[in-house]
Amino acid sequence: ISKPDRLDIIINQGMSFQYIKQRYLFTYVPNLIVCLAYSIMIDSSVQAAASAVVEPRWKKRKPNPSPPSFSSLPDVIILNCLACISKSYYPILSLVSKTFRSLILSRKLNHARSYHKTREKLFYICLQLPDRPLPSWFTLWIKPYQTEEENMKKKKATLVQVPSSYAPKEPLLVRTVGSDIYALRQRYPPSPFMLVRNKERYIWRNTPNMTVARVNPAACVLHGKIYVMGGCNANKSAKSWGEVFDTETRTWEPLPDPGDELRFSSVIRKIKIIRGKLLVRSNDEKDSVYDPKTQGNEWKHVKGLSSFNRSCRRGLIKTVEYCGKLLILWDKFANCEEEKTICCALVALEKRQNGQVWGKVEWSNVVLTVPTPNIFVCFTLMLHSSVQAAASAAVEPPWKKMKPNPSPPSFLSLPDVIILNCLARVSKSYYPILSLVSKSFRSLILSIELNHARFHHKTQESLFSICLQLPDRPLPSWFTLWIQPDQIEKKKATLVQVPSSYASREPLFLRRVGSDIYALRQRYPPSQVMLVRHNENVLWSNAPSMTVARVNPVACVLHGKIYVFGGCKANESAESWGEVLDIKARTWEPLPDPGDELRFSSVIRKIEITQGKLYVRSNEEKDSVYDPKTRKWKATPKAREGDSRCMVGNIYYACRAKSCMWYDKECNKWKQVKGLSSFNKNYRSGLIETVNYCGKLLIMWDKLAQPRLRRNCQEKTICCALVALEKRQNGQVWGKVEWSNGVLTVPSSYVFLRSSVIRT
Questions:
Q1: Domain F-box: where (predicted)?
Q2: Under a CB-based contact definition with an 8 Å cutoff, are residues 401 and 118 in contact?
């Protein structure tokens, strides 16, 4: 649907007008990643596609619950996404909705851009137009990502009147003194205020006020002092037409009166510092200099611009450095003598080996049409990070008839790096919905680059995965718990089969040794490869390979060594069924053979370390224990059925058939968790696993899908609950069930193999 010629196909399918309007609009707004997904999910046919992600293959597909509304997405996520997007897209994004526009206009977005260091330079000019009593500010809007063919037909840039969706208000006149930035307001009414902030912070504070209220003054910094001139009535306060602020003593002092002839009543264009003197430029007949002393330097002609120079020989307004390039502004008469067109060009400069400077015009076009008797007042170039009004009022000046905006660029024109950085800040719980946008968008969600971006931005989340052996599949299957965002009445979570848009691949089996993280693969085909990376680095490297290829092995760390068991055929290599990696020597050694009785052929569930011994838990009749000191294996009784333990916040918890317990280290007793009496009745049997999930207790159990059938029931429902824990002042631990529901329906003969919690 990213092409206009496919809109008729959407209409023929009988979709609602509201759906067509939203889907058509959002598809052409490339930066609106999250809002795009929500609007697309309005149609029921797309909802049916989402259900394929959730339900297992042997179940009849059911319609997915309707996705959350746009307002359910936290504002902080949207603001962080917008902060990483170029401001050139803001006029387009402001048309999405009133809610979205209010976020674009908010001051919090300024702070987010400052925090992420994504502020951009904006070029402003101030013009005195004949039909307006006050000067008017305009901003240069360079439109995003236009191809060379589009440049031939459409103009690349335009002057946007302030306020607009590209620039919310008149720019501040900013001057830097040391580590502080001082600012003067350039809008009406006149004001004596001056603001200051530190370079590293975005919060402005007040400084001592000027002695005279000013509007559109000029200022410069010389020897740590701020000189301010003009912006007030020339005859009203002759002594305060110019004044100076001492940043050390924080006091204002008036400058000497320049006299009636040089005390300009018009807006000062700029103050130029030449050899320690202040040269004041204005639109009056004369300029003035405060303690003048100048000396000219030699100028050289810039090569390669002969044809361009002919087009702007007259009417030159301004040249300024813009993002390391030369921005040239000039005017010329339009078709009639009553109007002029202001033109602009961006020139890239290059100094070549022969000492000559060459220029290349990147773009050049008309940016504004104004009445003939106009006066260029001043210009400002500043780092800016805010937006304010509607884009429709931003393109054309008010005295010209409004024309429709050119169609925004297609979704694919947005660079992948921007999309990835936006997605990295969005919770993974939204990925199954976002993956339905398009194939290109889904490929980005499944890419490794997105994992790297999440690691870089420190937005990784914990994922809980389980491995099941299903009777109709020869290989074990992995499922990941997808906690759906902001669901209240409908079910909160479901188990999503791997791979999916929520979990693109089987989880790695991770173990940490010091500052390094070691990983084993848990997918087919079997592999000898072990990976390693530093905990501050996202890139994996190869560790010494195991002696036997394994799949779904289990590992643990004891005394700086990594013990690996299983994952290979029990009779294939008896000597290498278990092996140990010495981290310092970087060598593998085989462990003693546990014998045919204890050499499990099934997938090992987990290894528990107790008193320096390794207890290997499996799904077979017996468990085993290995003592590294004596290098001997022994059989050990299996853990009590329905007993699963984990640690949450330095407290051990154990979930049993009829209760949830916690271990009190002070009195060495197991005590019952309060507040879960009604919940405990729901899982009297069939407890599968309890794990620490984001500082909370995640409990998983199964039950018959149709309890009335009992023996004849061929399906079970795996259920899951998330319990928040709190230790109160009386020493008791209380639990609160945040949500609880069925997450997957499986054949009753399934086998639970293991679980895993990793951050990704």
A1: 73-113, 414-454
A2: no
Q: What is the mean pLDDT of residues 15-19?
A: 39
Site of tokens 């530190």: 198
CA 444 to CA 454: how far, in whole Å? 13
- The mean pLDDT of 227-234, rounded to a whole number, is 79
395 within 8 A of 358, measured Cβ to Cβ: no
* pLDDT-wise least confident of 141-145, 380-384, 704-708, 721-725: 380-384
Give the pLDDT band (50/70/90) at residue 684.
low
Which residues in 518-529 are b (16+ Cβ under 10 Å) and which e?
bbbbbbeebbee
> What pLDDT score does 753 carry?
87
pLDDT at 714: 84
**44: pLDDT strictly greater than 60:** no
Place of tokens 């001082």: 182
What SS3 string covers 370-396? EECCCEEEEEEEEEECCCCCCHHHCCC
DSSP states of 291-339 as a string?
S---------PPBT-HHHHHHTSS-EEEEEEETTEEEEEEEEE-SSTTE
* Alpha-carbon gap, residue 272 to 269, rounded angstroms: 10
**Terminal Cα distance for the chain, rounded:** 31
Quick one: which H or E segment has residue 416? helix 416-423
Going from the C-alpha of 44 to that of each of 1, 63, 311, 431, the distances in angstroms are 17, 8, 57, 19
Residue whose token pair is 């000898």: 528
Chain center to CA of 225: 41
Query: If you average pLDDT over residues 728-757, what whole number do you get?
Result: 90
Rounded Cα distance, 486 and 27, in Å: 24
CA distances from 110 to 119, 196, 383 (A): 9, 16, 11
Residue 320, Cα to own-chain centre: how many angstroms? 33
Q: What is the pTM of this model?
A: 0.51
Q: Which two tokens stand for residue 93?
A: 């994004």
Q: How far is CA 106 from the centre of its chain?
A: 18
User: Which residues sit opposite 341 in a β-bridge?
Assistant: 332, 369
Nearest 10 degrees: Cα torsion 74, 75, 76, 77: 60
**Residue 290: both structure tokens together:** 């405060």
Distances from the Cα of 213 to the Cα of 61, 192, 467, angstroms: 71, 4, 73
Q: What is the DSSP string of 619-662?
A: SSS-EEEEETTTTEEEEEPPPPTT-EEEEETTEEEEE-SS-EEE
Nearest to 539 by CA among 521, 519, 523, 522: 519
| 506, two tokens | 């089987």
Residue 613 CA to residue 471 CA, distance in Å, equals 34
For residue 364, give the DSSP letter. Answer: E
- Other beta carbons within 10 Å of 643: 14
Strand order in the sheet with 660-664: 644-648, 651-655, 660-664, 669-672
Q: What DSSP line would sit under 243-277, residue for residue? A: EEEETTTTEEEEPPP--TTTS--SPP-EEEEETTE
Helices 416-423 and 448-456: crossing angle in degrees, nearest 10, is 60
Strand 493-497 relative to strand 715-727: parallel, antiparallel, unpaired?
A: unpaired
Is residue 737 a contact partner of residue 682, using CB atoms and an 8 Å limit?
A: no
* Residue 543: pLDDT band with limits 50, 70, 90: very high
Cβ–Cβ under 8 Å, residues 63 and 44: yes
- For residue 623, the Cα-to-chain-centroid distance in whole angstroms is 47
Coil, strand or helix: which one is 565? strand
Q: For Cα atoms 214, 370, 312, give the angle at the middle one, nearest 5 degrees.
A: 100
Sign of dihedral through CA atoms 79, 83, 84, 86?
positive
Phi-psi region of 209 (alpha: psi -120 to 50; beta: other; left: phi over 0): beta
